[in-house]
Amino acid sequence: MQLPHMDLWSPAFKNGEMIPVKFTCDGDDISMPLSWNGVPGGVKSFALIMDDPDAPMQVFTHWVLYNIPPTLASLPEGISKEKEVPQGLQGVNDFGEIGYGGPCPPRTHQPHRYFIRLYALDSMLQLRGGARVGDVRRSMEGHVMASAELMGRYGRKR
């Protein structure tokens, strides 16, 4: 079954473009601003997962944010790196830290792709702050009403 589509974008970069250094490990390493629309009725929360499928060993998770209130249609730049924030609950990224961890590919690699996916859910996830991405994905199963995707790229100077 095809899920309804929402739109997700950032004023910082367009889909498929380079992510500004400010939002990477080479800059301020802060989360980028995001906005969305096209949300179906009945949404109880949103979940957001940002990952890098081009990482050398496996898909690398950079950001997990869930139980985002259904009243929100955007996220500001620079969400603090705490388990509980006004925008919802944050999980542990693959750097082993809470919250956002910006793009930081090895210098020997070509630019990596970073996928930011937003999911509209028909429930709140029964998880505490600090959950791992696998737990968030399992909790979302059967509850995704719609989704949206934004892809940015980043490569480091050799």
Task: Describe this protein's structure.
It is built from one helix and nine strands, in the order E-E-E-E-E-E-E-E-H-E. A hairpin with a 2-residue loop joins strand 6 (84-85) and strand 7. It is mainly beta. It is globular and about 50 Å long. It has a single domain, classed as Phosphatidylethanolamine-binding Protein. It has one helix at residues 133-140; strands spanning 7-9, 34-37, 45-52, 60-68, 74-75, 84-85, 88-90, 112-121, 144-154. A six-stranded antiparallel beta sheet has the order 6-7-4-3-8-9, with helices on one face. The chain has a three-stranded antiparallel beta sheet with strand order 1-2-5, with no helix packed on it. It holds the Pfam family PBP. It comes from Thermocladium modestius. InterPro entries: PEBP, PEBP-like_sf, YbhB_YbcL/LppC-like. This is Phosphatidylethanolamine-binding protein.
The string of secondary-structure elements, in order, is EEEEEEEEHE
Domain unit count:
1
Q: Helical amount among residues, as a percent range?
A: under 10%
The residue-averaged pLDDT reads 95
CATH topology: Phosphatidylethanolamine-binding Protein
Number of helices: 1
**What is the CATH superfamily classification?**
PEBP-like
List keywords for this structure.
about 160 residues; mainly beta; Phosphatidylethanolamine-binding Protein; 6-stranded antiparallel beta sheet; 3-stranded antiparallel beta sheet; globular; YbhB_YbcL/LppC-like
